[in-house]
Specification:
The complex is a heterodimer of chains A (about 325) and B (about 260).
Chain A lengths: L1 E10 L2 E11 L4 E5 L6 H8 L7 E6 L14 E4 L11 H11 L4 H11 L14 H13 L5 E5 L7 H16 L3 E6 L2 H7 L2 E6 L2 E7 H8 L2 E6 L3 H10 L4 E3 L4 E5 L3 H10 L6 E6 L2 H9 L20 H4 L2
Parallel strand pairs in A: 3-7, 3-8, 5-6, 6-7
Antiparallel strand pairs in A: 1-2, 1-4, 8-9, 10-12, 10-13, 11-12
Helix pairs in contact in A: 2-3, 3-4
Chain B lengths: L2 H13 L2 H28 L5 H5 L3 H5 L3 H22 L1 H8 L3 H35 L11 H26 L2 H21 L4 H4 L3 H5 L17 H25 L3
Helix pairs in contact in B: 1-7, 2-5, 2-7, 5-6, 5-7, 5-8, 5-9, 7-8, 8-9, 8-12
The chains are: A alpha/beta (about 325), B mainly alpha (about 260).
Chain lengths: ~325, ~260
């Protein structure tokens, strides 16, 4: 269990993490989602006692990080890639960590086997690919067989097979009753692994909810229509009390799952339809919508398009 | 978490990187090699020296002449042992494993210092004996008054200069910045300050100038240094303590 209480980090004027309060519970994978620069890594560093909070508090099983005896046996963390000396072998890197926390040498070999680095264990880590580096970081997190695991962007740099492996690893760790806290800037990744979701943007808490709730609340269903008789269809729909929105490119969108009704109305009025398709907005869109106001670095969209749910995500650009 | 665990871990770190081996071997080879060369040259020059120089001729100190260059390798060792943690990003992994930062720094410095002391003492004894062999009938004997003190002092000097560098590196974090300050300082600036009469008074309180006094057996004729061999070493120890305390305070306060 990780508990954050009003956790805040300021760098001069800039607030990187703003009054975060939430708990990460055991037995499930909790996704920590936010756009780049939202404060995810800073929050994780504060959990590990690496960065000092400007205000607030964070506890692991009720204790501050530096009060944990042999902390690697409580909480294992994968921080941003390559937090080790490239001239040291993978085995020696893990060995020095193990020794500092009274972990046996046989456990070092075990985790090397688990992450599939046994063959290169004696090689200097500076020759490692990004994926191998990520595996070494994960080996370091697993080393103390901790009850709590924290992964910062674990799928970065992994090939599809590696991504599949880390997803299953996280799920199995949670199934063993461990606390798994994993950050990502990709909603699609979270949707596959996380049961619970904590979303932050510009350091502020935007959502702390179960994944199922998030999907239900945020996935918008609508009907997409294309017709050569646009004005006529709009009139008909209007008379029937159905609101259609023009989403550009000759496409109309109607909120909700009313495709049968629209089809029947069109048939009754002999309107030609080129397309009538029920759509489900992706979670990625829901996430963008949620964090729209807080995205720090906007990209300019090349094809300006009226957003049916508002154009706020382009406003700051 | 027991301190012995952290000490073992730091020993694994130090023995598993190449820089440890090459910096320390360089310190040994340069100190001994240059000591042999300068001892041999001094023997040949002795007859051409002035009377004052002949009276202040210090065969022990002459055999340690290579240390002025060998100490630079000790400085590199001291800097790298600490700043490697920062330049590689290892520091975050290290502090996540050992969140008690005082214990982390003390263990690291204890292990590195122990290694320096062993290497320093061996180097000092070897450089003394081979240096004396080169000096022929001008040589000092290990049993002469003050000589054993000077030889052990040579090992202590090498250790302290490395410790001072560890403290500076803990404060500055960057290896390039630390070396960029320490190398020219000990190779040039300190010597200049110590040899120009206007700045001599300040210069003699610098860590290397004060500390190297321990390696002198014969006091130069016109010497007016206000401290003796152990007094000089004590001044160097104060510098080392100041650098290490500074490093500890900053490590404690800063984000990793």
């Amino acid at each position: 269990m990780i508990e954050l209480e009003g956790l805040t980090k300021r760098y001069g004027e800039k607030v990187a993490v703003n009054n975060l309060t939430f708990a990460v519970r055991p037995g499930i994978v909790t996704g920590f989602l936010g756009p780049n620069g939202a404060g995810k890594s800073t929050t994780m560093r504060m959990i590990l006692g690496l960065d000092h909070p400007s205000a607030g508090d964070v506890r692991i099983d009720g204790k501050h990080y530096d009060q944990l005896k042999d902390p690697l046996t409580y909480i294992g963390a994968l921080l941003e890639a390559k937090a080790w000396h490239g001239g040291r072998s993978a085995y020696n890197h893990l060995l020095c960590l193990a020794q500092s926390n009274g972990i046996s040498t046989s456990r070092v070999r075990e985790v090397l086997e688990t992450v599939g680095l046994t063959a290169v264990a004696r090689k200097k880590t500076k020759g490692f690919s990004m994926g191998m580096g990520q595996r070494l970081g994960i080996a370091g997190a697993l080393l103390g067989d901790p009850r709590i695991l924290m992964f910062d962007e674990p799928v970065n740099g992994l090939d599809p097979e590696g991504i599949h492996w880390i997803r299953n690893l996280m799920k199995s760790l949670a199934a063993q009753g461990r606390t798994v806290f994993v950050s990502s800037h990709l909603m699609s990744e979270m949707a596959l692994t996380a049961e619970h979701l904590v979303v932050i943007g510009q350091g502020r808490l935007l959502a702390d909810t179960s994944m199922a709730d998030f999907i239900e609340r945020n996935s918008r269903s609508y009907v997409r229509i294309r017709t050569p008789q646009r004005e006529r269809l709009l009139d008909v729909l209007h008379e029937a009390g159905v609101t259609a929105v023009d989403s550009g490119g000759g496409v109309l969108e109607v909120e909700g799952g009313k495709s049968e009704r629209i089809g029947e109305l069109a048939a009754q009025n002999q309107i030609v339809l080129h397309e009538l398709s029920p759509q489900q907005a992706s979670l990625e869109e829901a996430f963008m919508q949620l964090t729209a106001e807080s995205v720090e670095y906007h990209a300019h969209s090349d094809t300006p398009r009226e957003q049916p749910w508002g154009d706020s995500w382009n406003k700051g650009a | 978490m027991a301190t012995t665990q952290v000490i073992r871990s730091e020993w694994t770190k130090i023995r598993s990187v190449a820089s440890t081996v090459w910096t320390l071997s360089l310190a040994v080879v340069v100190t001994i090699g240059l000591g042999i060369l300068i001892s041999a040259l001094s023997k040949n020059e002795f007859d051409n020296m002035s009377r004052d120089d002949q009276l202040s001729f210090d065969p022990t100190f002459i055999s340690f002449a290579g240390m002025s260059l060998g100490q630079l390798a000790m400085i590199v060792f001291g800097v790298l042992v600490v700043s490697n943690e920062y330049s590689t990003g290892m520091i975050r992994t290290s502090l996540a494993a050992v969140p008690q930062r005082g214990k982390f720094l003390v263990s690291k410095i204890a292990v590195a210092t122990g290694l320096c002391l062993a290497v320093g003492l061996v180097t000092s004894f070897v450089t003394f004996f081979v240096g004396q062999a080169m000096l022929g009938d001008l040589k000092a004997s290990i049993g002469d008054p003050g000589v054993l003190r000077a030889v052990i002092g040579g090992g202590l000097y090498m250790t302290l200069i490395a410790m001072f560098s560890m403290g500076v590196a803990a404060m500055l974090r960057s290896p390039m910045l630390s070396l960029g300050i320490l190398m020219p300082f000990f190779f040039l600036i300190s010597n200049i300050l110590g040899n120009v009469s206007a700045t001599e008074r300040i210069g003699q309180y610098l860590p290397d100038q004060a500390g190297s006094r321990i390696m002198q057996v014969v006091t130069p004729v016109d010497d007016d240094t206000p401290y003796g061999p152990w007094g000089g070493l004590a001044i160097m120890v104060l510098w080392v303590v100041a650098a290490l305390v500074g490093g500890y305070v900053l490590l404690k306060r800063r984000d990793a």
